[in-house]
Structure formats: C-alpha cells, structure tokens
Amino acid sequence: MASQRGEGETTTTPLEPADRERARAIPEAAVARLAVYLRVLSGMADQGINAVSSEELSQAAGVNAAKLRKDLSYIGSYGTRGVGYDVEVLVSHIERILGLTRNHSVAVVGIGNLGHALANYGGFPGRGFPVTALFDVDEDLVGIPVGGIPVSHIDDITAVCVEREVSIGVIATPPPAAQSVCDRLVSAGVQCILNFAPVVLQVPDNVEVRKVDLAVEMQILSFHVARRADEAASVSVGNNGLGVDGMVIRP
Amino acid sequence: MASQRGEGETTTTPLEPADRERARAIPEAAVARLAVYLRVLSGMADQGINAVSSEELSQAAGVNAAKLRKDLSYIGSYGTRGVGYDVEVLVSHIERILGLTRNHSVAVVGIGNLGHALANYGGFPGRGFPVTALFDVDEDLVGIPVGGIPVSHIDDITAVCVEREVSIGVIATPPPAAQSVCDRLVSAGVQCILNFAPVVLQVPDNVEVRKVDLAVEMQILSFHVARRADEAASVSVGNNGLGVDGMVIRP
DNA sequence: CCGACTTTGTGCATGCGTTCACAAGCGGTA
DNA sequence: TACCGCTTGTGAACGCATGCACAAAGTCGG
C-alpha cells in the first residue's frame, strides 16, 4: 500500500498521449460505471477467472451489454473479438484511466459517528486511498488515534494537508461547519472534495465536489414509494404498456 | 400491491389526480434536485424568509435558474409572476410530491461502524424517516440498544419488518452478506433499498435500489485528479476555450 | 487452409434532460 | 384604470447518453 511517499508524479505509469485524448472525452456517467466494472473484474480475478465476455460482465455489473462495450471503447480496444476480454488487462487498464496507479491521500474532517466509520475503513475499499489525516474542532479528540491515525486540530488543516499531500478531502461535519471547512480545504490546495454534509457547497470551479446526501437518497426512495402507492390506487383505467411484468422474484 | 398493512393510504394527504399525473412524469434527476430545493427552502423558512425568486433559490441550490423553474413546473405552478415563490407553499407542495407527509419506517441492517453512525442519526436529517429496526448477525449485539433502538437478530428480519411496517431498508453490511440480506428484505415486502455495500444487487424490478458507493465516489474523484494532472502536463499546444480560468481561490 | 461461429467495436437513431429565449401574467404606480 | 417593470412558466432547440443492429475481426474445428 505504501501510504505516503516523497513526490509522486512520475512514480506512477503516466498516461500516453492517446489515452490522454480519450480520458478527456469519457462521459461522466461512464466513469462511474467503469469504477463498478473494475470492482466486478477484481472479484473475478480473485476467483481465478481470466477471461470474460461483455455479456457476462455486463450482467454482473447490472448494465446493458452494449453500454458496457461502449464504455470500454472509450478507454480503447482491449478485447479480442470472438473471445472476450482478458480480466487482468482490463483491470490494469481501467486502473490506469481512473488514476488508481497513483495513491491519493485522503483527509477526513469531522470525527463524529460518520467520521469514525470512515476513518476505520482504513484505506478505502479497493485500496489506493490511504487516509492520512483526521481533523476535528473538539480539543478532547485531538491527539487520539482513530483507525491508527491521530486526530489533528482543524486549525492546523492547511499545514497538515500540504505536508501530507492530501488530494481528497472528505467532509463529515455538521451542516453549519461544512462551508467553512470546505473553504479551508480549498485554500490548502485540495481540489477534490467528497461532501457528506447536507449542504450545497460553494466552491471555485477548479475544485471538484461530489456529494453523498443521505436525506436526498431517502427522499428519492420516498418519492418512489408514494408514486407506487398512487399507481396502485389508480389501477382502474388500465396500465400503459411500460413493461411491468409483475413480481419476478429471482432467488 | 401495498403489501401488508391495514389501510395506510388515506392517513396522509392523498395526491389529487392532477398531481398524480404529474408525479409520473417527473424526471429522476429532477426528483433529486427537488429534495435539495426542499432543504434550502426549509432553511429559509427557519430564517423567517417567506418569499423567494427563482434566481435566489437556484443560486442557493447551486443550479441554473431555468432548470429550477422547469423542475418546479413539473410539480405545478405555485409561483407568482413578477414576485416569486411563497416559501411555505413551496415547501409543503414539494413535501407532498416527495411523499414526505407520510412517515417512512426505516430498517438498518449491519450494525458495524457505519450502521452505528446511521442508527445514531436517529430519524434521518429532515425527519420523516424514523429508524424503527436494527439488525445484525452478531449474537452479542442483539438486544443492545443503539440510538435508542434495540438490535434484532437478522433471522427475525421478515417478522420484524412486517410488524413494524418497514418501507425502506438500509444495507450497511460487509459485501459478502449484502445480496443475501437484500433478498431477505425483499421477501419481507420491503420495496425500497438503500445500499452502502460495494456490491451490485440483483433485485426483482418492482424493487427500487439506490446505492451509495464510497469506493466509486473516490475513484471518480481520482479520475478527475488524473485528468487534471494530465491537462496541466500538456499545457503547451494551447488550451481549448473550455473555461479553465486558472486557479481562482476564493477565501 | 478454409469456413462457420462467436464476440467485439461502432455508426446511427432514439429518447431524455438541459438550456435558451420569450410570451404571459401579476403587482405596483400614476 | 392603464401602463410599466419584473418574474414565472414553457415551447423549442440543442446536446448528451442509451440502445440497436451490423460489419469487422478473431478463434476453433475439420
């Protein structure tokens, strides 16, 4: 895993010009799916499987086979017609495109319940994301190690982030603190932020923010519950032909 | 459908036929944003603000003003031209569309670090989502209350979910257990699942699954880091006009 | 070496979602 | 009451993503 390291630009396999061109053109949605394919492929590799067809892989990943092939075509042609894909080759290629050949140092801010959970993941699932810094306002927490890393005070955020070359900041603070923490991360040079706080962050446009919003997820589900209840209540006129092929429970 | 439960339709404000039609047509992406608008609006209501224009609201929510208006138009016309929107009216209308006038009982499965964090949220942010059941395989945990709710054994999942009318199941187990837990939730009649396990769940098509995948989020960020590093490395030929206006750090 | 079969890679059409731009509608003012 | 300015609501254009269908390309068996 080799946690932090001296410099870290050219230690990793650099993208060749051809790939560089491609990376620019990959749709956002496809990037998310590539990460899923990667996980499925890693699992297959662990099971000793070394070849896979687009059909098999797509089913395991829960997507359309054509879409999968198109997604893979964005990163180049690495399959063999008539045979399928070499698992190892695909894994290493997706890893390269996603930038996983380089380690991304992660800082978690806000060591509450969620922060604890995140810190204890200890190098995020799928590794390549070592947590190297933890921050909180609470003086009582400072110095105490969580998941092996001692908590720093939030006022030291700039110094620590720069020193440990943090490239991804995770915000797990209460809502009111989120924007302020975000600003501090940004001025510490962090350009990628994963936000768990239910707040819309304002950032300069050179910073990438992704948000994980529990409340929103729940409310989307709630919407579907409501919609279904309504549809069920109005099954009188006749349903449209939109394929509700009724309760196929697959064990 | 409406699985079990005595009545449960008309306890809550029922959607009128006109709204029912509309709810069916709301794009998935818009639903997610409506939840965000709702939060922003609630905040405004708490601050005593009672009118807002699409411009203000859209900025606070971090979206385009035109998009916001279109999103709101999906749920009907509740603004006043020349003035804006009444905050209260909008809040209650979005709540109705999202089905938040009804309480959605939530079950959390897997009381590890993340499960603890979720249970301790204690009725999810924005309320309306009371956590009413917790499950784990670990016998040592069974009976111990977490966040006020005693943990049940996972083998009792069907009985407990039916009894407590669970409508949303949250999976926070280790990956290998996720599919099995999911199957059990489904056979207990749970139709909405929020999945934190890094696994692609296979479900019948009457079940709605949303996934929150830390690893994928991190890898998407990683991709952007890599893409940027590459773009920065190839600033020699000349950048395209696609607005990278260079490192504007706003404090 | 050839032919049949399999599976990839992709051009094209379709549909969805976003954005633009403007007419319609409402409050305030004289 | 009539006008003026402001903001909504939406028709229409655009662009992106998905899905289809097929040609290209490779393997395997004879």
UniProtKB/TrEMBL annotation, chains A, B:
Region: Disordered; residue ranges are 1-21
Q: What transmembrane ranges does the database entry give?
A: none
Subcellular localization, per the record? Cytoplasm
- Keywords in alphabetical order, please: Cytoplasm, DNA-binding, NAD, Repressor, Transcription, Transcription regulation
Q: Which InterPro entries match?
A: CoA-bd (IPR003781), NAD(P)-bd_dom_sf (IPR036291), Rex_actinobacterial-type (IPR058236), Rex_DNA-bd_C_dom (IPR009718), Tscrpt_rep_Rex (IPR022876), WH-like_DNA-bd_sf (IPR036388), WH_DNA-bd_sf (IPR036390)
Q: Which domain of life is it from?
A: Bacteria
Q: Which positions fall inside the CoA-binding domain?
A: 99-200
Q: What does this protein do?
A: Modulates transcription in response to changes in cellular NADH/NAD(+) redox state.
| Stored PANTHER family | REDOX-SENSING TRANSCRIPTIONAL REPRESSOR REX, REDOX-SENSING TRANSCRIPTIONAL REPRESSOR REX 1
* Name of the protein in its database record: Redox-sensing transcriptional repressor Rex
Organism, as annotated: Lentzea miocenica
Q: What is the lineage of its organism?
A: Bacteria, Bacillati, Actinomycetota, Actinomycetes, Pseudonocardiales
